Amino acid sequence: MMISPDDIQEGMTVRDLEGRKLGTVANVGETHFELEQGWPARRDYMVRYHGVARVQGRDVYLSPAPTPVPPEDDPPPNG
Q1: Residue 22, number of CB atoms within 10 A of its CB
Q2: pLDDT band at 75 (very low <50, low <70, confident <90, very high)
Q3: Mean pLDDT of 70-75
Q4: d(Cα 79, Cα 67) in Å, to the nearest integer?
Q5: What is the Cα–Cα distance from 65 to 58, expressed in whole angstroms?
Q6: At 42, is the secondary structure helix, strand, or coil?
Q7: Rounded distance, CA 19 to CA 73, Å?
Q8: What is the pLDDT of residues 50-71, one digit of tens each?
Q9: Which residue from 28, 48, 66, 78 puts its CA 20 to 30 A from 5's CA?
Q10: pLDDT at position 2
């Protein structure tokens, strides 16, 4: 299944395959969308459309990635 920019809208919830909330779609581009975490935004990720497993209602589910996005409610790592 090929995901296109028409399938994604700003404000949609982004989740991992287990359904944990990763953030919100903040901006939609031609090749990727911006995933925003926190309010005000504390971190942004660029997600290419081939990284989307499926769109279901107002939820975008991401495929497993080499660099996973932590769930939004996880505390940031101590640095």
Answers
A1: 23
A2: low
A3: 67
A4: 18
A5: 21
A6: coil
A7: 13
A8: 899 999 999 999 988 655 667 7
A9: 66
A10: 78
Reported pTM:
0.79
The structure tokens listed for 21 are: 């909330």
Residue 5 preceded by cis peptide, ω within 30: no
Pairwise CA distance, residues 51 & 58, whole Å: 17
For residue 37, CA distances in Å to 2, 5, 67 come to 25, 20, 16
Q: What angle do CA 21, 25, 28 make, to 5 degrees?
A: 155
Q: Please report which residue ranges of the chain form alpha helices under DSSP H.
A: none
CA distance readout (Å), 63 to 14, 25, 42, 79 = 11, 16, 23, 27
Backbone angles phi, psi at 49, to 5 degrees: -60, -30
Residue 63 gets the label, from left (phi > 0), alpha (psi -120 to 50) or beta, of beta
